[in-house]
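Give me the fold.
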Amino acid sequence: MVDTNGNGTWDGITATVNSTSKIWNIPWMITAPGNYQLTATGSNGGASSTTTRTARVILREPSGITDADSDNDGLSDVDEATVKGLPTTTSDGWSNGDVHVYYAYGKSLPTCPDSDGDGLPDGLEVGWRTASNPPTDTAADTNTDGFKNFIGDMDPPLYAVVENAGTVPGVGSLSLGDDRSRQAAGSVTDPTNPDTDGDGILDGAEDANRNGWTDGDGKTLPLNATIAQYATARPNAGDWPNNKIDSFETWTETSPTNSDSDDDGLKDGYGEDKNGNGSIDGDANLNRVYDASEAWTETNPLKKDTDGDGLPDGWELSNGLDPLDNGSDSYRTPTGNDGNSANGASGDPDNDTKTNEQEYLAGTDPKKDDRVAPVTGQGTIQIGTFSNWKPDDLLALDEYDSGGNVSDLYRTNDGYDTSRDLLSFSFRDGGDTAANGDGKLYFRADFLDLQANAWQGYVDLYVVINVGNTGAGEKALPDQVDLTTTMGWQAVVAVWGQNSGTVYADTNPANNTDNVYQDPSASGFGVVSRGIGSTGLVAAQWSSAQDACEFSINRQTLKDLGWSGDPNTLHFQVYATKDGTANSPVGAGDLTGRHDLRDTIGDDWICSDYWKDSSNISLNAKLSSWFGRGDAWNDRGKAAKVLLLAHANQALQPASFIHSLIKSSTANSPGYSRWLKVHEDNSAPVSVHFTATLASALQWASSTDATKDGPAFNLRIKTALANGWLDLLGTTYADHVLKYFPQEMNRQNVMAARVLLDGIYGSGSAQSSRSVFWPCERVLDNASLEQIRQIGFPYTFADQGRHLAKWFGRTSALGDSGYRINEVNGIRIIPIHDSASDYLTQTHDSGTAIAIRQLLSRRARSGVEDQVVTLLRDLGDMGNDTILTSYETNVRWLVNRPWVKLVTATDIAAGRVPYKGTDGQSYTTWGTANQGNNKTLTLAAKDWIDHANQESYDNWYNGSSYEEGLKNKRFLLRGSTLVPQPFGQPGVANTVSDQVWTSLSGIATSQPLSPLAQAALGASLFQTAFHNTSNSDLSKFSTGDYINPDTTTGQGLADFAKFSQAQTREAGIYGRVQQWSSSATSSTLGSSAEDIDHDRRLDARS
């Protein structure tokens, strides 16, 4: 209490009263610095109230001197009171001092050498090395505690300025560049915060000898050392303090800037040295080593595992175990061998047959019985077949090298860079044998382009495995790749060649590597190499055709290392190297001055070969990302959806012609049959457009040669439909252009096609898609889309490069929207990727073209999963052996990617293709790129058609200065005589098509002749108004405009179009027959002369 007059009696309480409250003032004097808890209790009769406040008393050490450096802390009064900015000149011209004063000035009190009262002088806290006298009296010790007001910093801050480049690790040169205000080395504490790292220990207690350096962390810098002398003081990389206890270091004090110096999960103060006195309570001789006569009550903040049982202090404490009891001896008592057997590495307090060490490695609770029931598994993989992998096996996707300075691949330009460019990693659990599994774990890595025999000297694959607790395990990676990981590992699988490799297994969890200078294979760490065999690598195969490596190990291999058996708890890292990473003698895959990884899945920056990244990589590179089924980073189920689309349309043709389509007589027998076999053999989903005329022609084209038999081919199509991997699209009868015909005529035509296709391929059941419509030659505008919608189809197709680009702009068409369902005017459009489709006729190194691999990689990695890449081929091309062989190669490559999922159009429309939304939830109904309603959409068609008709099909139907039109075409009647009337258009009087439709529209669809009439009309409209052209140059400017438009004059209708459309008038016969049959009886006789075939000539009827 306060005794103002010194009479030995405290001053007492004074009270003041106002209208609402009464305040008691209690004078109190505290002379010793520290934290104090003050409690006040007030009572009013029987009721009382208590309040508590915590106060911290700081000894300010006012100097009582006024001069340029009043408190003699090395900082002038003006500088302590005044913030100074960075120079306004270019940062490459800044000195270390320029940046240092920016961080140091204006942060402390000018009349107090220790502004925050933590025991460290202000000059030392901000990193001052020397002070001038005057104005600083370097001998001053205001509080006479034996520590001067100014103490020089033995580990001063060094910034990433040009003058430090080449000396201070990681500082970029003038040409490399750097953040020049970045602190690259050294340490500073906060002069305004007595506990800079917030660990519960004052900075002065942590830096107990007041030298600005955490004693034992690397080496100090002499106070007067020049930049040129830094290398002498710290010649090795490990000599530079890094605020981390490395294996070759012995710290004697905790760090004031790292709240958990020993990285055991407990803060130095609040968790370990709880009273903040800088020592272990109970450690009588203060040597931080437990002796038999001692009884400790605190753990050692400089030792991760105080009791030496192999279990970190923080893990033990958080899991209800005693970090001062190793199961054999309790450090809490001076008595020896008095430990509790439930503690320590071999304890099993929950009696689940798993030791505490196993629980620690697996990341499970040692106080909870968490035994894993036998896992059923996801099925066996036959190593070497590279088949049966599914999107659910996928764990992680990775970027491919896109060239330039931004690269995730270290390129050697040895011809095998793409063979080391990782794209994905997949994992499957074959299941526990006790649950009818096969007892194996399967792994697969896909590469951009794994070249033949690349595994013989040019690529090695490594998979780093943690069995549950990512904080536990080895940190240095094997085979001298000169890199560490932040995810501890229990196993690393190395695959070097065909059935060649090893499993590095950590059999001593109590002693682990923690820095790049350690070799995990060295004695003491317990890492053993297990080659091909039951305890190591079971099987491993590489395939250049499949651009992948797959391998397997036994489940027991990981269970022996602490795995619980739950596949969801495994964590992985994956990287590729070039063979020969040894440092001595130097191997072919060793990279001087940096680690040896060429690509990783994740952590892309550490494999950059851009020269400006090299310093940062050398200093800071670590594998720091991992993935697994239970991790936040998890690409499981992601896939690029690919819709293979096949189009075939033929007029009614002779059987011999159809036989040649099914199986060509040329070498290797290309044709429809071999195309279908590709899909049959691979169960590869495909959406097919067959017109009714083609299906009919196939059904009629029987043959004694079963390989050419049309009905047999149709039966295979029927079987594929029943098996669900073939999808038959909605169609017109013979692929006519909707735009030029009335809605009802089109509807009846589509219904007639549906009835015929259902009859052939479904025995009358629905087989032709009711949801997705194929538009002839993709001739589409807003009116055509509305016709399709009115007929009843919610989906149709349009080309990315023609329709979407014209209608919605190139930015939309080429971005994510170009791969999504585009909804406009109430109809949904599945994009056909016309440019990408051309690559189906190409291959690369026994696989699909590189451009397609890259496209699919981008689509798989996109954050929007309801996307599809639609690749179209005309089945007419399948008669070409070269094209068909390329197609076969592409399908085999696509169907065997875990990150590629083949789908059909109807499956998308029916909600049978699940995906994850951007919110992480699972959906089946695909979203759309909404392009608006009531939009006027210009007429467009597929690329060849657009080019040939000057980008308007009207020029073919109506005619133009370049082409004759169908509308005004008068076909030959006989000899040179023409039909008197032009073909015209329904709704245009005195034209053939109008008269025929008028005749047929009177036939009710329920009438027996209706299907025959519709079939006759439909077949005659085959490839409406199609023309020949001599200009097939489809090259374009970057804007999409044709470089060489087709402006050839005199272009006429194609012969097959003329032949078909000339037959349209014959369909009118059925209208008159139906009219007669509707009124005729068995006794009706009569005759008349009428023009029933619309040639303006009278025909006899009786």
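The first helix runs from residue 77 to 81.
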